[in-house]
Amino acid sequence: MRHATPLLALALLAAASPAHADDDDDEDSYFVAFGKHTIDAGFTGHGTRIGGLSEGGMGARLDLGYGRGRWQYTAEGSLESSSLQQTQTTSTEGRRQRAALGIRWLARQFIPINELGVDMYLHAAGGISRYQWMDSGSTRPDVDLGVGMAVRKFARHDIFVRLDLDLLFSRGDSGFAGGLVLGW
Amino acid sequence: MVKLLAVLLALTALPGVVRADDEEAPDDGPPLLLGFRLAAGKLPIEHQELTTMAMGVDVDHPIARRWRAFGEYEFMWLERDQMSTQHGSGHRVLAGLRHSLVEKREHHFRTYLDVEAGGGMAVVDDTVIGVRMLPTGFGGLRGGYDFYASDSPSRVFESEVTVRAVMVGDGTGVMAGFGMQWGN
Fold first, then answer.
1. In the prediction, which pLDDT does A51 show?
2. How many of the other CB atoms lie within 10 Å of CB of A135?
3. A68 in contact with chain B, both atoms CB, cutoff 8 A
4. Distance of CA B116 to CAs B1, B63, B176, Å?
5. A4-16+38-183 — its CATH code?
6. Which of A32, A38, A80, B56 has its C-alpha lying 20 to 30 A from B77's C-alpha?
7. Which residues in chain A touch residue B53, judged by CB atoms under 8 angstroms apart?
8. A88 Cα to chain B: minimum distance (Å)
9. What is the set of domains in chain B, with CATH numbers?
10. pLDDT tens figures, B66-90
11. In 3D, which of A117, A82, A111, A113 has the Cα closest to residue A98?
């Protein structure tokens, strides 16, 4: 049960994708591909549990992307606050730093007018999170799996606003992560 | 619970309360919709109302003029008290039918109100009750709007709000959520 969701989601991602992300594929040719090089930045937040205690925070994130057809390979980094709830009335404050490598697949794309698209993505990433609180810390590997949607203005360098919604798994604990970024 | 389900099933069997315009959707085949949804509510598990949040993906396909079949997978978080160490998570797979009660189409834009019913299975893993299988039935309403663009990679984009009565062994809970779907 503990590992069922990441494995199931990865299997779905693999099954949903073509065997090769070939730009010449008939279906893929209808899509406006990811930009070859993208950068985006914005707000992010997360909520999870560490050692049975609620933990959450908000902060900033920066993603770099390399696109190939409907696939995008990403390097993701974030710096967030971290509040670890010790009791009903007390919490320990700190920060969370995360670095991850990920992959994003353009599952659907709605183009209501020529230069504008509304995209849906499936996303998976694996990374390391470093938590630092007042008198303690923790380094935890994690995996996030999720979906996203973006409104994209097509141009030589696309401009987009993207909303990410991810399940976050780390050492048997599950949580949620979300972000809103602006990119080009 | 049985009465509620009976009423919802009766509603789905009725012809449309309000007749839709005769104008048909663009005749390029029924779209297979793929999307995601966020939902929150209360579920009665082991005689306790648990705050439940869910994030999932769904597929949806027309099977007749005003009928659609759909399937969903959701990951759920269960909370007794946000500060408590008593918590859980779970997976839920559902299938159902939806029937359009009211719809209004204006060129490539449509608003609708559907009634829906179905069932499935949930598996929850909770720090208090352990692993439990929960046969689940549901019925409810969903309303929203969609856009058509016949020359888009995804011909339909849909945005919707759902309200459901969710029946599990220990009683009936309520979940509400919003989601987006893209056609193929």
1. 82
2. 7
3. no
4. 15, 14, 13
5. 2.40.160.20
6. A80
7. 176
8. 5
9. 2-182 (2.40.160.20)
10. 999 999 999 999 887 666 666 788 9
11. A82
